[in-house]
TrEMBL record:
SMART domains: Gln-synt_C. Belongs to the glutamine synthetase family. Residues 169-588 form the GS catalytic domain. One of its GO terms (biological process) is glutamine biosynthetic process. It comes from the Bacteria. It comes from Candidatus Olsenella pullistercoris. Pfam families: Gln-synt_C, Gln-synt_C-ter, GSIII_N. Residues 64-153 form the GS beta-grasp domain. GO terms for molecular function: glutamine synthetase activity. This is Glutamine synthetase III.
Length: 696
């Protein structure tokens, strides 16, 4: 797309505010804005008018269907398409779309995981329009972003708790801001998700059942070259990939997704796409759209896009950095201000964040736990499984000084009145990045780096929003009624005490080092290494009380998430185990029979004419031993996986998959990979790491 075309087409498939303003009668538009901005209730007459305008707009853009677009507990998006067609009874049709159809849908989506919230006989959940996220057109379908709720009002999706957590944060942050004499209309989070992914040839992808069924390779010996030369990072982009990226940008821009930067990542064939940040839940929706487009567009270029956290052993996996900040009417609250009072306000939010992360480190860790992400976290390529906060030298010095009631060394002269330290400007372009930290302050926002590349970002943001809301609540409750110098003194004391009490979570060193693990243990920080380890905290009484207090998730909803997260983990590992057994029996063993058989034949033939062939003989022996090992390991995996499948308690089952099935998988992989190293390439039944990662 050329420059002019871009600005012309940007958001052309999005039912934007401008489109609404243009197409709706003024009073209707005004009322709708109130619904969107202030959460006012929606009147059916208004809904009818909006639906009509939306339909007319969508028909002009070539849409024939509409769909309620929602995010069940699987995390990915779902949609059921309904056409606008309404037969008139005389053989002709009308294109219609009512307010009721806009506002509420009944997908009869009884097969989605609900963690027991709905027994299937009363399966109906309904989808409810989320007017804060604009409708868009995708493949001739008008997509309406919705929340997915049971008839008893329980959240069956990822979006509803996110919206609730945003309300909680807004409410509590406004109380804090009021104490600083500010009354913003809206307080909201901003999120910028950096999406990593791999691109390989579709023809290679199609030959690997593990990639097709599981999204990651379950076998494959180390490639001759990995990422050690680091030439891929920010390197020149292959023409095919460049074409693909351009098309993705074009598509995303039409949908109003502000895709901004794209570059090659560290691992071979790994890339990243980062958008300009947007308001919280909208950014999450747009990230989901981005993931969908990446996958879809890739196939148009003969490529396959892998969004799994660990598609390949031996090179880095993929994450999704969740850049997070909090904003009041366009003013970033994590940006230190010019005036001392603004600095105090900044310090209050900073302290709130540090405390929030420390107090709910287990939930934060849980929110990014998955079978896929377990391969990354703690594996010297991604942050460890231990949650800590990195502030950077400047801010760290200020925090230390505050706690110790000293003046920061270099900034003594800059100390302003009322005991509030002046925050240096350098904070704003803080480039002192610590890449090993899971939660890093990067100048005017925090970057949560533990998220997995294929995950729905709602989960971590629900934790963050609610945890910060809780701290804001505490601050406001303590300080309400105080004014003037007394307020300043007490507020600063709150900052000081909060930072002191949660100082253990601040860590500026190398998060990848073994020393940190030991040090973190001394500090009493949780180190939840795998998904099963993180499950219990979802239903802990403290969690129920915490989410209950801010009306984000009730006990039944939490229990549902516990069950569904466990189920998803177990089911995924079961599929991986099945795939390995299948590949071993139907691909690898037959290939090894062929190869060893051919060499054995050649040994026998040579012997007939009196030629000894010790090397070939030895190889046949190695291959035969390998075949036996693979055979035994396959049977072992099958048995362990069958045993795990039988267990009924969700946690016990996950532990069995983790403790017994995963090691069996690793063992089988070892046996097969050892044979890959000695087997002739023409015989090997699937593309190798060398081929997949370094395609031309
Ligand atoms: P890096 O790779 O160095 O982390 P990128 O430019 O790739 O930097 O990504 C930074 C991300 O942070 C972008 O998506 C950007 O929009 C986002 N971001 C910047 N400011 C904020 C903010 N105030 N709130 C949330 N996200 C932000
Ligand atoms: Mg980043």
């Amino acid at each position: 797309m050329g420059k002019d075309k871009v600005s012309e087409e940007y958001g052309s498939l999005l039912f934007t505010d401008a489109v609404m303003q243009e197409r709706l009668p003024k009073p209707t538009y005004k009322e709708l804005r109130q619904v969107i901005d202030d959460g006012a209730p929606l009147d059916l007459d208004i809904a009818n008018e909006v639906a009509h305008a939306m339909k007319e707009w969508a028909l002009e853009k070539g849409a024939t269907h509409f769909a309620h677009w929602f995010q069940p507990l699987t995390g990915i998006t779902s949609e059921k398409h309904d056409s606008f067609l309404t037969p008139k009874g005389d053989g002709t049709v009308l294109m219609s779309f009512s307010g009721k159809e806009l506002v509420q849908g009944e997908p009869d989506a009884s097969s989605f995981p609900s963690g027991g919230l709905r027994a299937t006989f009363e399966a109906r959940g309904y989808t409810a329009w989320d007017p804060t996220s604009p409708a868009f057109i995708k493949d001739e379908v008008l997509c309406i972003p919705t929340a997915f709720i049971s008839y008893t009002g329980e959240a069956l999706d990822k979006k509803t708790p996110l919206l609730r957590s945003q309300v909680a944060l807004e409410t509590q942050a406004k109380r804090v801001l009021a104490l600083f004499g500010r009354e913003p209309k809206r307080v909201y989070t901003t999120i910028g998700p950096e999406q990593e992914y791999f691109l390989i040839k579709e023809s290679d992808f199609e030959k690997r059942p593990d990639l097709i069924y599981c999204g990651r390779t379950l076998f494959g010996c180390e490639p001759v070259k990995g990422q050690e030369l680091e030439e891929h990072y920010f390197g020149a982009i292959r023409p095919t990939v460049n074409e693909f990226m351009k098309e993705v940008d074009d598509e995303l821009w039409k949908l109003g997704v502000p895709a901004k930067t794209k570059h090659n990542e560290v691992a071979p064939s790994q890339h990243e796409l980062a958008p300009i940040f947007e308001q919280g839940s909208l950014a999450v929706d747009d990230n989901l759209l981005t993931m969908e487009k990446l996958k879809l567009m890739a196939t148009r270029h003969g490529l396959a896009c892998l969004e799994h956290e660990k598609p390949f052993e031996y090179v880095n996996g993929s994450g999704k950095h969740n850049n997070w900040s909090i904003c009041a009417d366009g003013r970033n609250l994590l940006e230190p201000g010019a005036k001392p009072s603004e600095n105090l306000q900044f310090l209050v939010f900073l302290a709130a964040l540090v405390a929030a992360v420390d107090e709910h480190a287990d939930l934060l860790r849980m929110s990014v736990a998955s079978a896929g992400n377990d391969h990354r976290l703690g594996a010297n390529e991604a942050p460890p499984a231990i949650i800590s906060v990195f502030l950077g030298d400047e801010l760290d010095a200020i925090v230390d000084a505050l706690i110790n009631k000293e003046e920061p060394e270099d900034h003594a002269s800059e100390r302003m009145d009322l005991g509030v330290p002046a925050l240096p400007d350098v904070l704003r372009d803080n480039t002192d990045r610590n890449r090993t930290s899971p939660f890093a302050f990067t100048g005017n926002k925090f970057e949560f780096r533990m998220c997995g590349s294929q995950q729905n970002l709602s989960d971590p943001n629900v934790v963050l929003n609610t945890a910060v809301a809780e701290q804001c609540d505490r601050f406001a409750t303590k300080l309400e009624g105080k004014t003037g110098d007394e307020f300043t003194t007490l507020a600063l004391r709150w900052v000081r005490h909060t930072l002191r009490d949660h100082h253990r979570v601040i860590f500026e060193g190398n998060g990848y080092s073994d020393e940190w693990e030991a040090e973190a243990e001394r500090r009493g920080l949780p180190n939840l290494k795998s998904t099963p380890d993180t499950l219990p905290c979802i239903i802990a009484p403290e969690t129920v009380a915490f989410y209950g207090k801010y009306h984000v998730l009730n006990e039944a909803e939490l229990h549902a998430r516990y069950v569904s997260k466990a189920e998803q983990y177990a089911k995924l590992l079961n599929i991986e185990a099945n795939t390995m057994v299948y590949m071993a029996r139907h691909l690898y063993l037959p290939a090894l029979f062929d190869y060893s058989g051919d060499i054995a034949t050649s040994v026998a033939t040579k012997a007939e004419i009196g030629i000894e062939s010790p090397v070939e003989k030895e190889l046949v022996r190695t291959l035969t031993d390998g075949i036996s090992a693979i055979h035994a390991a396959t049977a072992d995996l099958e048995a362990n996986s069958a045993a795990a499948r039988e267990l009924s308690d969700p946690l016990e089952q996950c532990r069995a998959y983790h403790d017994s099935v995963l090691p069996s998988m690793e063992h089988l992989r070892g046996c097969v990979d050892a044979m890959e190293k000695v087997c002739g390439e023409d015989y090997w039944p699937v593309p190798t790491y060398n081929q997949m990662l370094f395609w031309v």
